[in-house]
Amino acid sequence: MSTSRGPRLRILMEPRHGATYAQILTLARATEDAGFDAFFRSDHLMGVDPNDATYRPTDCWTTLAGLARDTSRVRLGALVGAATFRSPGILANIVASVDEMSGGRVELGLGTGWYEREHAAFGVPFPPVRERFDRLEEQLEIITGLWRTEPGGDSGFSFTGKHFGIDGNRTPPRTAQSPHPPVIIGGSGPRRTPAIAARFADEFNGALGGDLRERFGVFDAACEAIGRDPATARHSAVLPVACGRSQSEVDRRAAVIGSEFIREHAAIGTPGLVTERLGELAEAGADTVYFHIYDIDDLDHIAVLAGDVLPHAGLPGTVGGRTA
Length: 324
Known about the structure:
39% helix; eight-stranded parallel beta barrel; TIM Barrel; 14 strands; alpha/beta
């Protein structure tokens, strides 16, 4: 597990029209070369517009496995995976495999899943919201329980829940990181999301919209309610960006952002404006920010953020946007 507690800037890829692995790899390598801390991708099989026939889906963890071998430094993960897509025992093994393949650079972001049309299009059951939260909580019990279980014990790991069960697993998946890869949980819900995150998350993500400071405060209170020191968890935020050195660059990148809701909360403008927004997020309590990128082929966007924002973001160990 990463031991650094300094502020972090990361890239989150959610291409508007999907992508091939070659495109994903090119952006991940550009992210790594530029000096960003991590490259994350979304876990979706359909774009914002369900009628967009040009959208090209890829499986999140299959591509992360490829990146584990095709990159060398940058951390990798999903923000956030849909708990509805994979059974917990299988997901625990998938993530552990990718963690080993990457030399211990993987992080697991997991949420309830929200895109009902996407589930219908791929034949994935989509339970009501309360049940999805129940399933998420059981999945995290199983995943972290398996990861913490020593192999070869007398009884192994067992779990009996309403939706999932594990019977005496004496050969649990082995992760490269100890005790296991960081777990990221986030969302805007005022009750169950922070309560679940307080139990399981190494990082709480405040999602888009609303009062970020208030959400972090609710999460911290949930930690204190179970006797956990809130300082043991990171606070992160997502910042959609359309950054350019000229107005034409800004306009071109802003046009790719998929929805008005995202555009409303994006940093659209010069590197100076983006840097100011980072300062505001830091004041609200964020120590980790994910730059949300929508045009997967726009490598110059990464270069602008690395060259004109990273050096002014207060990140330790970076010089001119590259790792020192």
